[in-house]
Design brief:
seven-stranded mixed β-sheet, single chain, alpha/beta, two-stranded antiparallel sheet, 6 helices
């Protein structure tokens, strides 16, 4: 089980939900500002801690031996999404988003999950085992909407290889939108938040 915290929408009875996954060494605490900043009053949020302790925060996988942790975290997040569906949050009302390691997990889980989600938001991350992903993902993956953002001043995850990965996804027929901002390994304030906000909003009919 993953530890998570539900932050209800201002609008009562909404089933629209954004699940947010943090980066390496961070936690739920690092994203408490995010729901207010996104400023969509009909959107519920679920902030999720990664499973492994990491220097006062948490991690989704070992950066030096990624596969075991990615596979384990993928299963945990599949279970989380299944549990949310059982609690009357339909898959097509769930946006999955993440930063850095959380971005990798968002893309990996979102493209492999056998139900269409409202959208995927990957911030300053990368795609795990691209060729394997393209070979294994279900047909529903090409229905998933993906927004990937990055910055040319990112010294943690250099932009060039990630840009090529997104081109590969686009060439393979995925609904992948790529946006660059003049930033390092961070979220570029309201300029980037506005793009995320509009992408998320577009995933919900009538909002």
């Amino acid at each position: 089980m993953l530890h998570s915290e539900f932050i209800p929408a201002a609008q009562k009875n909404s089933r629209a939900l954004m699940v947010m996954l943090h980066g390496l060494g961070d936690s739920i605490e690092g994203y408490r500002w995010f729901p207010e900043a996104i400023n969509l009053p009909w959107l519920n949020f679920l902030l999720v801690n990664a499973p492994d302790d990491y220097y006062g925060g948490f991690s989704w996988f070992d950066i030096n031996d990624q596969k075991p942790g990615v596979v384990r975290s993928r299963e945990l997040l599949f279970n989380l999404l299944d549990d949310l569906r059982a609690k009357n949050f339909p898959a097509d009302q769930i946006t999955l988003g993440g930063f850095s390691q959380g971005c990798l997990m968002t893309i990996d889980v979102g493209l492999r999950y056998p139900h269409r989600l409202a959208g995927l938001v990957g911030i300053s991350g990368w795609v795990f085992e691209m060729e394997k992903l393209l070979a294994e993902i279900p047909a529903t993956a090409k229905q998933q909407r993906l927004l990937a953002t990055h910055g040319p001043f990112d010294a943690v995850i250099p932009i060039a290889s990630v840009r090529e990965q997104l081109k590969q996804l686009q060439a393979a027929g995925f609904k992948a939108t790529w946006r660059e901002f003049p930033k390092a390994h961070t979220i570029h304030g309201e300029e980037e938040l506005a793009v995320i906000r509009e992408f998320v909003r577009a995933g919900y009919d009538g909002k």
